[in-house]
Task: structure prediction
Amino acid sequence: MRVPIPEVLRTERRFARLFVGQSLSVLGDRVSFVALPFAVLAIGGSAADVGLVTAAGLLPLLVFTLAGGVWADRIPRQRIMLASDLVRCAVQAAAAVLLLTGTARVGTLALLMALFGVADAFFLPASTGLLPLLVPADRLREANALRGFVQSASLVVGPALAGVLIAAVGPGGALAVDAASFAASAAVLARLGPAGGAAPEEADGATPADPERAERPGFLAELRVGWQQVRSRTWVWSGMLAIAVYHVVVLPSVFVLGPVLAEREWGGAGAWAVVVIAFGLGAILGDVCAYRLKPARPMAVAAVAMAVASCQALVIGSGAPVWVIAALEAVTGVGVSLFFVLWETLLQVHIPERVLSRVSSYDHLISVALMPLGLVLAGPLSDGLGVRPALFGMTALAVPAALALLALPAVRRLPASPPGGSDAVPGARGPVPEAVTGA
Result:
């Protein structure tokens, strides 16, 4: 049976090449996510050492993400992504060599992961900003849905592949596979060619014909322009707040308290694996829905999807049989994928291309910066209240926060495409206004 190729891959060849390269990279990342803790343990590290190495990769994201957004709006984004892939390839290759030769140390792995995090901080905003330069505005939803499909599918395939690799060649061999995936992605980016976008001297309204403004603004000035784009659009800052609540309140129920309940009451890691896989399958279905649906008011649909996604804590703490919890987690997986595909697409369609990476950097910063807070507080909260009351309290905070988005006219009424025709789409030229009276 012949599998149909999505139209956006058939018609947008440059995106198709990027999609293949990034798909390999994402799969490699999922393998690395599983392999890295085992790598630390294999060299005699403790649970605290696992946390140290993981945190070493996270901290640079907090420090450098905003800088990554500014630079991604200054120079061609594929160059930043290429450099990031090459750095991450070198980092994972070095870690693999150290592990395979028996010379790895916890401190060395932590340093390597810090370098990995720096490269990641520059890659993420550039990646969001590159897509509108490769795909027409009316195809962005489909392109983001395909990227989301790969992310979701890798949640199911990646850990299984990691288990096979760790058993066959050890954690070092698994990290070598991740290094190879970055090399493949870099090869694709190197052949991608110029992707258009604002020339450096055109950023934020300066043009070669305007010599008084041809000099590039300072770093902080460019950062302020990105923030102005966020705070002047109600749907953007309110959406970011909802995402922050999701990361601080909901995700700890998945990463911390879910495994605790699974160990105490469900029969251990096997039952938790069933729930995680079911969520991944639901997330895949959500990406398929995002690919096919064309809502006239996508932000309103996204808000409902976020409310569904925010029910994960309630589902995990429900006390239902594991198969029921797994089925309900699959439903929340649909909500998660649907929200984030629609959210990414709306940013790419409504935010001027020349400031998109800066806006995206604020989005990534909120997601990354606040999640550790929730992870740290989840344990003490459950110790004080009990696991189930803590989960129910998470739900009581998260679901109303998501539904509050629907109370905002700017969210309910935001159209799929900006009014004003081609002048309002991501590739449009012209100065970024000091204040945007947006939705």
